[in-house]
Design a protein that fits this description.
- The complex is a heterodimer of chains A (about 675) and B (about 160).
- With about 675 residues, chain A is of the alpha+beta class.
- Chain A contains 22 helices and 22 strands.
- Chain A is elongated, with a radius of gyration of 33 Å.
- The relative contact order of chain A is 0.06.
- In chain B, a hairpin with a 2-residue loop joins strand 4 and strand 5.
- The longest helix of chain B has 9 residues.
- Classes of the chains: A alpha+beta (about 675), B mainly beta (about 160).
């Protein structure tokens, strides 16, 4: 990876982060238009994006964020009052930033045309609720259309440089000098212009730069950023006097450097003033000692830990009778366990990362649909494995869209039903035992199973006869069937062809489950449960039809060796008695549909049985042989083999062979 | 052969593609080389229960679990197998092994001139899995449509 790529990656990562902060904080700003802390946070984030874009040389982004910053500056100086229009404009500005970033990511350059939007910003600057018109503002309005500061992006160092060189008398002038079309010896003219500028003050930057001018590698315009104590008129005159100069346009900057200074001061203040805790959701840009790591590297690390574990297990298998050996094994065991724990910890990220994008979505959608919705987020700091986080965004988005579109009713209908006109969606995450639970709950219309069943019959998912025999719960779950969509008309919001079936398959691919509860006119709750961590678990190794399988210890209560006499028949079902409990027996090879003759175990003197436990009952799984208990690294079977009955994954055992992991949840 | 070569040289802008040619019961088949990752000898394949018959099982490929599809079974080709090789291919981020008889060669073909669609040739392969037939003189090489082969029934579960 060359340097540029590295910086680009950092640029994308960081700008995405700032964009997220901007989205969050603009949302907060809408609710608390007077809150200076929020305004400052928005301002800082916009300022950072501008700085980064300028450093990377993305002019449109720089220009766009610069103007957004201008608006924010006015808001901060109370020259502009926050209203809905401004908030909407800010939001669409954030969308434009995202579009430009997407452009850069996809094509390496900015494609999206933002000029209309920039014009809109200018309009706001001009008319948008100005309280007091000071001279300064007027001047900016006057020259606003000619704001070409975007042609002169400054790096942070350059800004620092300007700031250091500026005295109180100095101003910053953005100058555009147009050379005549038929200008001869352009390089000489250009050189003279720069020289003249240098005589008048400090030449901070020019575009084209001196070298390009000497090489005559430029069009007819030269942009200059000049720090000078001279008056605008004087500068204009001096430059216009140079031969072949057609036009000189000067835009006096609204003391941007001072703004920077202020911002820096405030940042420091906030950093120091820790007692003034940040508001909920209000992000602080503060430097913490963290490192950004490519997730692939973590995956590699995880794999290495896995291999270490496999080899440790092999080593243990040697079982050498020596104190030193035992000692080493113990140490190794401890270190690998710690290592595993740490790697897992590193991979854990707060689910807030995906929750954060929802408030904005809910706001936009509810506005679009004329609904009033309050989104409450709980447990955003709940951590789970990064690989899960990446996959969960879309399913959650889909469930939320469904709640907004189909769940929450319009205010007038809610009033008729005696509910508060404002609907509530609760998005909540928490850890429960070794599982992470994510709930999306709304107080909307609920799901009418009759409608569901009708649709399902129309779509040919079930026959009327089948539907009649279904339990209420199963009727509800019809919405998870492929090809099901409850919306009468396909709306823009949730009727996108992907349905709840996708939600379910994604969650199940992550070894999780999704439940649905709903009550008419009371609301609907989706519950997603996911394993806390996937990678490593303790398992019992068993042999079934000459193949080694792993059964996670979490689902085993004990193992037994029984004799055929202990097997009894109860209504055609083989059972054993274990501490006065009747436990049904099932044969593993039959559960797995293995191509062998079933029932052969009865010929053996000792029959190995694994007692599988589930919430409701226990079951005895007959296997061919019980092996050892060991730590296994759980690996997915990949995207080709999905939803294999009774198999949840695979692991690699000591000799490099693959052992499948039994999913006993459906057996017990 | 010479003639073809010269023509290829003349037609520099005509689009050519490279394929890996392999054998199934003495017939020649091919997959796009950009989709092929490597060729491995068959070691232990762990069978996976509750999967279609043509899924031979999974292998451990440097720590990654890779499913292996038996192409003979997939195409319903019978007969004795002397040798077995696995071509690993990557399609839409999915790494998968194709179990074939043997690997023959890697060759170029011209998309315009040497690839014929809708083959009416005698092939054991279901027409659905065929992208086209590459004609090299008298040789006919069946070009396999991986998308259809792998995802005809996207959910492999039973």
């Amino acid at each position: 990876m060359d340097n540029r790529d590295q910086y680009l990656q950092m640029f994308f990562d960081e700008s995405a982060e700032y964009l997220q902060q901007l989205n969050e904080n603009v949302l907060l700003l809408e609710e608390n238009p007077e809150d200076e802390e929020i305004i400052n946070a928005v301002f800082r984030a916009a300022h950072s994006v501008k700085g980064m874009s300028a450093t990377m040389g993305y002019d449109r982004l720089t220009d766009l964020t610069h103007r957004i910053e201008n608006i924010l500056a006015k808001v901060r100086n109370k020259e502009l009052l926050i209203n809905e229009y401004i908030i909407d404009t800010l939001f669409s500005g954030l969308d434009y930033i995202k579009l430009l970033l997407d452009d850069i990511r996809a094509n390496g350059e900015e494609v999206t045309d933002v000029s209309d939007y920039l014009y809109k910003l200018e309009e706001i600057l001009e008319n948008g609720g100005v309280i007091q018109e000071t001279e300064e503002i007027e001047m900016e309005v006057e020259t606003g259309q000619q704001d070409f500061t975007g042609m002169l992006p400054l790096t942070e160092e350059e800004k620092e440089d300007i700031y250091n060189k500026m005295t109180s008398d100095d101003k910053i002038f953005n100058i555009k000098v147009m050379l005549a079309e038929d200008c001869l010896l352009k390089n000489v003219r250009g050189y003279m212009i720069l020289k003249k500028a240098q005589e008048m003050g400090y030449l901070a930057k020019s575009n084209p730069d001196q070298r390009k001018i000497e090489d005559e590698d430029f069009g007819n315009a030269i942009y200059i950023k000049l720090v000078s104590s001279l008056r605008e008129k004087q500068i204009k005159q001096e430059l216009a006097d140079i031969i072949d100069v057609d036009e000189v346009i000067i835009h006096t900057e609204k003391k941007e450097v001072e703004v920077v200074k202020e911002v820096e001061k405030e940042e420091k203040k906030i950093l120091v003033d820790n007692s003034k805790k940040q508001r909920e959701g209000l992000s602080n840009i503060q430097v913490s000692p963290t490192v950004r790591v490519d997730i692939k590297k973590l995956d590699n690390l995880m794999n290495m830990v896995g291999e270490l574990l496999i080899n440790k297990t092999r080593l243990e298998g040697l079982n050498i009778q020596s104190d030193v050996y035992q000692d080493i094994i113990q140490q190794l065991d401890r270190v690998t366990q710690d290592l595993h724990h740490i790697v897992m910890q590193i991979r854990m990220v707060p689910i807030g990362g995906i929750f954060n994008r929802f408030p904005r979505m809910v706001r936009d959608l509810s506005k679009e649909l004329d609904k009033e919705i309050d989104l409450i987020i709980e447990g955003a700091d709940t951590e789970l494995d990064r690989s899960l986080i990446d996959e969960l965004g879309d399913p959650l988005m889909h469930i939320l869209r469904n709640s907004i579109d189909h769940g929450i009713e319009r205010p007038e209908i809610r009033k008729q039903k005696g509910k508060s006109p404002e609907g509530t969606i609760l998005l909540r995450a928490y850890q429960k035992g070794s599982e992470i639970i994510i709930e999306v709950e709304d107080d909307g219309a609920g799901i009418d199973t009759d409608v569901i069943v009708k649709k399902a019959i129309e779509r040919g998912i079930v026959t009327p006869d089948e539907a009649r025999q279904m339990e209420e719960r199963d009727r509800l779950n019809l919405i998870f069937q492929p090809g099901f969509s409850t919306s009468e008309q396909v709306t823009d919001i949730s009727g996108r062809g992907v349905g709840m079936d996708v939600v379910r398959s994604v969650v199940e691919a992550l070894d999780g489950q999704v439940y649905l509860e709903s009550e008419l006119d009371v609301g609907t709750r989706f519950t997603i449960s996911l394993p806390l961590t996937l990678a490593i678990t303790q398992a019992l190794m068993v042999v079934i039809n000459d193949e080694v399988y792993a059964i996670p210890l979490g689902s085993i209560s004990e193992t037994l060796l029984i004799s055929p006499d202990e097997i009894m028949q109860v209504r055609g079902q083989e059972v054993i008695l274990l501490r006065e409990n009747t436990i049904p027996l099932v044969e593993a090879s039959r559960q797995l549909n293995l191509p062998v003759e079933y029932g052969r175990y009865r010929e053996n003197e000792e029959i190995p049985v694994v007692i599988i436990k589930s919430a409701e009952r226990q079951i005895g799984l007959i296997v061919d042989e019980l092996l050892n208990q060991q730590e296994i690294v759980i690996k997915s079977l990949g995207k080709y083999l999905v939803n294999i009955k009774n198999i949840s994954g695979a692991t690699i055992v000591g000799d490099g062979d693959v052992a499948l992991i039994l999913d006993v949840r459906n057996i017990a | 052969m010479d003639y073809t070569l010269r023509e290829d040289e003349l037609m520099e802008d005509s689009e050519r593609k490279q394929v890996v040619v392999f054998l199934l019961a003495d017939e020649e088949y091919a997959v796009d080389i950009t989709q092929s990752k490597q060729i491995i000898k068959v070691s232990k394949i762990t069978p996976v229960p509750n999967t279609p018959e043509y899924v031979r099982g999974v292998i451990n490929l440097r720590g990654q679990i890779v499913p292996v599809v038996d192409l003979r079974k997939r195409f319903n080709i019978t007969g004795a197998v002397e040798k077995e090789r696995i071509i690993t291919i990557e399609y839409e981020d999915i790494l998968i092994g194709l179990l074939v008889d043997d690997i023959k060669e890697v060759l170029w073909y011209d998309i315009e001139k040497e690839l014929e669609s809708a083959p009416e040739i005698d092939s054991a392969v279901k027409q659905d899995f065929i992208k086209g037939v590459i004609k090299k003189g008298k040789r006919l090489i069946v070009l396999i449509d991986l998308e259809k082969l792998l995802f005809d029934n996207r959910q492999v579960s039973v």
